Amino acid sequence: PVVPIGVHGAGSLRFDGLIDTGASACLLSEDIAELAGIDLDTVAIATDVRGVAGKLLPARLAAVTLELGPT
What we know:
This protein is mostly beta strands. Helix content is 14%, strand content 39%. It is built from two helices and five strands; from the N terminus they run ββααβββ. It has helices at 30-35, 40-43, and strands spanning 3-8, 12-17, 45-50, 56-61, 65-68. The strands form two sheets. Strands 2-1-5 form a three-stranded antiparallel sheet. It has a two-stranded antiparallel sheet with strand order 3-4. The relative contact order is 0.31.
């Protein structure tokens, strides 16, 4: 089901989205990170992640606070 999600970095952003409760990490687009005030150039660690099909994809890791449900 689609749920309200809050992403809190230097700023905050709320949107409706899907959460994979079985995943070891949540992936957000660079656009979402930018809108939430997350500076990926200074706070993120470059790495690769493995997608559902097993393909390695470039990613940047940053700690954020996620809030699920309505405010």
